[in-house]
Write a structure and sequence with these properties.
Number of strands of chain A: 12
CATH class of the largest domain in chain A: Alpha Beta
Strand order of the largest sheet of chain B: 1-2
Oligomer: heterodimer
Strand content of chain A: 15-25%
Helix content of chain A: 25-40%
Number of helices of chain B: 11
Number of helices of chain A: 13
CATH class of chain B: Mainly Alpha
CATH superfamily of the largest domain in chain A: Periplasmic binding protein-like II
Helix content of chain B: over 70%
Number of domains of chain B: 1
CATH superfamily of chain B: MetI-like
Order of helices and strands of chain A: HEHEHEHEEHHEHHEHEHEEHEHEH
CATH topology of chain B: MetI-like fold
Strand content of chain B: under 5%
Shape of chain B: globular
Largest sheet of chain A: 9 strands, mixed
Largest sheet of chain B: 2 strands, antiparallel
Distance between the termini of chain B: 35 Å
CATH architecture of the largest domain in chain A: 3-Layer(aba) Sandwich
Number of domains of chain A: 2
CATH topology of the largest domain in chain A: D-Maltodextrin-Binding Protein, domain 2
Radius of gyration of chain A: 22 Å
Radius of gyration of chain B: 24 Å
Distance between the termini of chain A: 18 Å
């Protein structure tokens, strides 16, 4: 049916030309939605014959829909599990697009600049460090006068890529966290209260004196929240910025299937709480015409598109990784 | 009334008999669609929850662990949170709503009634998320700094009002829901009270009753069944309320005696975690929570119907 329609289209092609737009459907993660929307928007200037429809239904939905092939590409904030990949009818590729950072925000009188290391942060979120003047915090912040105040922990209540990155980081720096809690888009939090979305967490932190929470870097920037410098694996305290995330991407160990975690990378200037987001694309496209358009778009995304990332507080892929992503795009068959 | 159709047309007209049959089938189809929808929703939820039902069995209802990392799921804290927040909401909203309805039907001057009714009905039109935002930024800080402190100070000997005060809590969730169900309880109660025949009131006055006695004996007892129905309508909405609740309840799947502690509800956890749930068992467990919520709603309604029959009986409290 599809084939006969296609051949019919090919016959009519001479007369109908490019009057009809092709629609490419994608669905998945909400974290990269602003940059993807920007890409689709800009790309209409490059190729007006194709239009993209992206639905930010969440990473879980993105994985489900691409497995069911109800969309042309999926998007996910966490790499797919082996169990889910096994459900794909043929090779399904992860292609990283951009990365983002998660920052630790807090509400203390006078908005002091805090420095924290991984084990301390894990202790706070495990509920073992309960006071702001705990020696573990005070020892790293000798210049700050910390109050004898209870710490109110705020975490995300909705499943999210932000929580995935954050718990991935805590698992990598704290064996106790790894054993007791682990990493996922939602976990069984040992302490604190839940806020819905970045806005929910930020709102909760703003409203509760002595609270600590985590939000996306972009959200913290846009809303001028106080955030902590985090100690990385080289022992340096790093302020979260787009550049520091690019450093993290550049030094992260990325395997051939691109399913990598970039928390706590070795780079001296790398910010340690960061994660990539992926597109999920079949290696063999079913619809040749759509496949061709999708590959053309991805080529554009990994050359010109990436340059748009920093303006939206996303970290673009460093050149070496970008080239690897581009090679993967070029090997998509249609 | 002047243009009554002729009697032979009424009795024998074949067209009207056809229309009758058509109307009967149309109404029947309407009823089938409504019932069918519920059955379909239940069936779909069951199909989506099969894996979790097979894995956890009835234990799902009594386990309190909810851990997406280790794939261990239990519904108890969510059932607890849903019921407790709804009960708090009813305890606040029913007296307030009935009082407001009484004022509007029995006591308020006529010029005042319609404007107040309009304002109350506007409250019903405010979207859930707006209540939630108002909850985070206005209600919760006020509760934390004033009402909760006062409650802890004066009633702190009760386990209900002990423990640290975060602001976001089961009580805050209940209060938000109370505000949201207030319009429906007020509106329905007002309609019920308006339907109390004036003869009732006049009879009571005739016996020398004071205004309060008239309201108590002649109006409230006559309307008690209807008011109970209004409360059930409110409860139905309270059980399923999602967005505003999740913004102020603290979203912590824990069972605590203290109303200051954070809690979680069935509807909230489904809305929160559905989009990012990737493992099959996780997704199935969320579906099963939906099934539990549906069952809980039906159960509560059945119990309410039974109570209506036994507690209030058939007597409608007429002044005799």
């Amino acid at each position: 049916m599809k084939k006969s329609l296609l051949s019919l289209a090919a016959v009519l092609g001479f007369t109908l030309t490019a009057s009809a737009q092709m629609l490419i459907n994608g669905a998945g993660a909400t974290f990269p939605q602003p940059i993807y929307t920007k890409w689709f928007d800009e790309y209409t200037k490059v190729d007006p014959s194709v239009r993209f429809n992206y639905q930010g239904i969440g990473s879980g939905g993105g994985q489900k829909q691409i497995l069911a092939e109800t969309v042309d590409f999926g998007a996910s904030d966490g790499p797919m599990s082996d169990e889910n990949i096994a459900k794909a009818s043929r090779t399904l590729w992860h292609i990283p697009t951009v990365a983002g950072a998660v920052v630790v925000t807090y509400n203390l009188t006078g908005d002091p600049k805090l420095k924290l290391d991984g084990p301390t942060l894990a202790g706070i979120f495990l509920g073992t460090i309960t006071k702001w003047n705990d020696p573990a915090i005070a020892g790293q912040n000798p210049d700050v006068k910390l109050p004898d105040q209870d710490i109110v922990v705020v975490h995300r209540s909705d499943g999210s890529g932000t929580s995935y990155i954050f718990t991935d980081y805590l698992s990598s720096v704290s064996p106790e966290w790894k054993a007791k809690v682990g990493k996922n888009t939602a976990v069984s939090w040992p302490a604190g209260i839940g806020g819905k979305g970045n806005a929910g967490v930020a709102g909760q932190v703003k409203q509760s004196p002595g609270s600590i929470g985590y939000v996306e870097l972009a959200y913290a920037h846009q809303n001028k929240l106080a955030f902590a410098d985090m100690k990385n694996s080289s022992g340096n305290y790093i302020t979260p910025t787009v550049d520091a995330v690019v450093q993290a991407l550049a030094t992260a160990n990325v395997p051939d299937d691109f399913r990598f975690s970039m928390v706590n990378p070795p780079g001296a200037q790398a910010y340690p709480i960061a994660g990539a987001t992926w597109l999920l694309v079949y290696a063999q496209q079913k619809d040749p015409a759509k496949g061709q358009k999708l590959v053309q778009f991805l080529k554009w995304a990994f050359t010109d598109g990436e340059k748009l990332a920093p303006d939206l507080d996303y970290a673009p892929l460093p050149d070496a990784l970008r080239q690897r992503a581009l090679d993967r795009v070029n090997s998509i068959k249609y | 009334m002047s243009t009554l159709p002729s009697s032979d047309h009424l009795l024998t007209g074949s067209t009207s008999r056809g229309a009758d049959a058509a109307f009967k089938w149309l109404a029947f189809a309407g009823a089938v669609v409504v019932v069918g929808l519920i059955v379909l929703v239940g069936g779909e939820l069951y199909a989506g929850a099969r894996l979790a039902i097979a894995k956890f069995g009835p234990g799902f209802l009594v386990h309190s662990k909810w851990d997406p990392v280790t794939d261990e799921f239990g519904a108890l804290p969510f059932i607890f949170g849903t019921l407790v927040s709804s009960v708090i909401a009813l305890l606040i909203a029913v007296p307030l709503g009935v009082a407001a309805a009484l004022f509007l039907t029995e006591l308020a001057p006529f010029w005042m009634r319609q404007p107040v009714v309009t304002v109350i009905e506007m409250l019903a039109a405010v979207p859930s998320v707006i209540f939630g935002l108002w909850g985070i930024f206005v209600l919760v800080p006020w509760l934390r700094d004033h009402l909760f402190v006062w409650l802890k100070h004066s009633l702190g000997f009760l386990p209900l009002f002990q423990g640290p005060i975060y602001g976001v809590s089961m009580l805050a969730g209940g209060i938000i829901v109370a505000i949201m169900i207030l319009p429906i309880i007020t509106s329905v109660s007002r309609e019920i009270l308006r339907s109390v025949p004036n003869l009732q009131r006049e009879a009571a006055y005739g016996l020398g009753a004071t205004r309060w006695e008239v309201i108590r004996i002649a109006v409230l007892s006559y309307a008690s069944r209807g008011i109970f129905g209004a409360a059930i309508l409110g409860l139905g909405r309270a059980l399923g309320e999602t967005m505003a609740v999740t913004m102020v309840i603290g979203n912590r799947p824990e069972i605590s005696a203290s109303l200051f502690a954070p809690g979680y509800t069935l509807a909230s956890v489904i809305a929160n975690e559905f989009a990012e749930a990737t493992s099959d068992l996780y997704l199935n467990s969320l579906f099963e929570l939906g099934l539990v919520l549906l069952a809980l709603t039906i159960l509560v309604n059945v119990i309410a119907q039974a109570m209506l029959k036994t507690v209030l009986g058939g007597a409608s409290g007429k002044v005799q």
